[in-house]
Design goal:
Layout (H helix, E strand, L loop, with lengths): L7 H23 L11 H13 L5
């Protein structure tokens, strides 16, 4: 069975995608106060308890 080895470029790209995803989730959980969802504070309500659990104030 041949072993496939990913090149360094593929690994860097994969790491960059994961870092961007992590940054987006961190923004949504900590800083978004419902500004992205005008009219319906969906993310604020979704992550409300998680913010308090992490010690991030949201009021």
């Amino acid at each position: 069975m041949p072993m496939v080895v990913a090149s360094a470029d593929v690994e860097r790209r994969r790491a960059a995608v994961w870092m961007l995803l992590l940054a987006a989730v961190t923004f949504l959980v900590t800083f978004d106060q419902g500004a992205l969802t005008t009219g319906q504070p969906l993310f604020h309500e979704l992550f409300h308890d998680g913010r308090h659990l992490l010690g991030v104030p949201c009021h």
